[in-house]
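Notebook, student rotation project (T.W.).
Task set for the rotation: take a protein with a known small-molecule partner, predict the structure of the complex, and write up what can be learned from the model alone. Partner molecule chosen: zinc ion. Sequence and SMILES entered below by T.W., checked by me.
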Amino acid sequence: MRRSHRELAARTRYGSGVRVTPKLPHCDQLPVVLPPLTDELLSSWIHRHATFYDVPPLAMLRHCLDAISSLRAVDLVLTDEQASRVASMFRTDAANVRRMSLSNILPKSCRLIAAKPMQFCAACARQANSSGPEPVRRSQLLGWRLTCPQCCSQLIDGDKRSNPSPFADYWTDALDGQRLIDDEAERGVRAWASPTELARLLLMRRDPRTAHLKRSGSFRLLGVVVPEADAIVVENQISLPSAANPILPLWLRPALLAGVSIVEREGPAMLTWLQSKIIGQNRTRFSELVSTMLSTHPGPEPLSLLQHN
Ligand SMILES: [Zn+2]
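Predicted structure of the complex:
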């Protein structure tokens, strides 16, 4: 049953162009709170409430966070005070609210968070059974996921593309890459290298003379570690994303995650080898990124490995 919560709507008016929101230390509690789905994204939960109460989602959010700029902002950057205010309004505790957000994600790993849902788990979607807007789970935005963190089913491309990944032989390595990035992004745990940074490095352009293909293309370091990637990118005329935005479509993602796993397993010497495949300014940029990544690690200093090139 959907109903209009007139009191809430009346307190957030735009008719005169001036938003009037009561300045409360803690906002009023909603009379009806919808149970969140497992792994549901905070903005999705708020959106479902907004539909239930028949108010715009941002207006509902601003009832307790009057300075918030967007629903995405509450997913990505949620302070303790904001979490407490949202928790009070939705009659839950702040820890639950934080778990639904992405505010725990390591800042560098936020590059791997998509702006919109890219994928979904068919098994979990069948269990949703909710009216109103389609719920969104956290994992639908995570650009390093291949499998559902709840039930471990393989995720499905949100565009309903049925392409099986051509990198099936790399599936075990790809799952290991997923684990490495997940440990770093969600829990801040990493070994000698940042797997998120390794993913970026693998998307850097390399010397085209190192590609064993007759056709030309924009070849990335990824093709050095996962050789099949070069031909697939060229044959499908794919423009891979830049290192600044290292989110690959689901069917190509196993290649990048497997590459991350292989480099992580091989150790710093592999970075030296990869560096030898780059020319020009990209080589300098690669060196800078690697130096920054390794200098932030508390373990043995492997920088000298890169200074011979
Ligand atoms: Zn699932």
